[in-house]
């Protein structure tokens, strides 16, 4: 799956200021109407979608009130699901049947099914031909409502994988193979011209008033989505993760973990900045080769899973971008540092953990399809997989445009700075990188032998 989005827009500054224009996305809903409409339309990631489809900031009071309501509604894990475990097995056949039965009868999806038994990561995909099933396995915890409305594990604070994102990844797996899944946030040509005209007039007098004037001149950026539904929770997760990365990179928000200065802070005193190049940042998958048993009934997913990348780009006066294939050293240092901090960020700002979960799900969907695991298991997952899937995913408000914000810092000399990019998920590429390992069969044998009960988890 290949997902691209552009966040910040560049401007060439003829004086000793670096002005950053940020695409301030995005609101998304982590829980869905499928277990009670309890999560409603709320602002997440510091913004919300208004009635015109414009992304705007949410006040702290509204955010606090929303979280209090959510925490009062979510029941949390019950019974043996209330115990954390290093390895929980989730039956895809089982959760598909429960979801389709509930949908057919007009009932709510059970909360524990929606939260996939508290699964916080997928480490194994295991095939059980004897029970015609495919099973996902990984660590799991009891869950609660965490920061920004995410459903997170009570022990680690890592976001819980949810059924809606799983269904979206599975349903659009063919689009992922074709490379047609994309997300972009782009300025309008008129907005770009207005911004440069305004900046030429106020360049010698940058202050809070002229910064606000620059933002108004730039106007809203347009959100374009293809390949996955614009109203899907998965689209919102991807947009929100890009938004948060840009806030931290452009010094529009302080990172909630130590040792992560903004990119602008790192560039502030640089004396040899290029006046022609900008830096683009994006998050991408980072998996090791997927290992499997000789009989191909067990598959192990490992690796860092998510990383931050950068590339220098050149722009002309109209904003046309040209890739260079090279990375600025300071930008590379910031990107590497951000990658190293992502695990900590995933608990402080859970949208990064949710993005990691989305990447896992896209990889699993591509693995099941590319390795023909449904046939190997004699397991029909058509209720979840493919364009004819019967399970209905949630439909959220569609983000059509977003308001810009501007940040500026004093620099050693004039420079051209950009931070476009976003998220790229190449699930089929990583799903094709497999190798045999006998240790995976041994791991499957030691994890659990699925019993004969109809339980959807173990």
SSE blueprint:
Blueprint: E1 11-12, E2 17-23, E3 47-49, E4 54-57, H1 60-73, E5 85-91, H2 92-105, H3 111-114, E6 124-128, E7 133-140, E8 143-145, E9 151-153, H4 163-171, H5 173-178, E10 182-186, H6 189-202, H7 208-218, E11 221-226, H8 233-249, H9 263-267, E12 277-286, E13 290-292, E14 298-300, E15 305-315, E16 321-323, H10 329-348, H11 351-370, H12 373-377, E17 401-402, E18 404-410, E19 416-417, E20 421-424, H13 427-431, E21 434-436, H14 438-447
Parallel strand pairs: 4-17, 12-20, 13-21
Antiparallel strand pairs: 1-19, 2-18, 3-4, 5-7, 6-7, 6-14, 8-9, 10-11, 11-17, 12-15, 13-14, 15-16
Helix pairs in contact: 4-11, 6-7, 8-11, 10-11
- Overall shape: it is globular
Residue fraction in strands:
15-25%
Total domain units: 1
Widest β-sheet, arrangement of strands: 5-7-6-14-13-21
Structural class: alpha+beta
Number of strands: 21
Counting DSSP H or I runs of 4 or more residues, the number of helices is: 14
Calculate the mean pLDDT score and round it.
80
Question: Helix share of residues?
Answer: 25-40%
Terminal CA distance = 30 Å
What radius of gyration results from the CA coordinates?
A: 23 Å
Uncertain residue segments: 1-43, 413-419
Largest sheet entry:
6 strands, mixed
Can you describe this structure?
The chain is an alpha+beta fold and about 450 residues long. It has one domain. The chain is built from 14 helices and 21 strands. The protein has helices at about 60-75, 90-105, 110-115, 165-170, 175-180, 190-200, 210-220, 235-250, 265, 330-350, 350-370, 375, 425-430, 440-445; strands at about 10, 15-25, 45-50, 55, 85-90, 125-130, 135-140, 145, 150-155, 180-185, 220-225, 275-285, 290, 300, 305-315, 320-325, 400, 405-410, 415, 420-425, 435. The longest helix has 20 residues, at about 330-350. Residues about 1-45 and about 415-420 have low confidence and may be disordered.
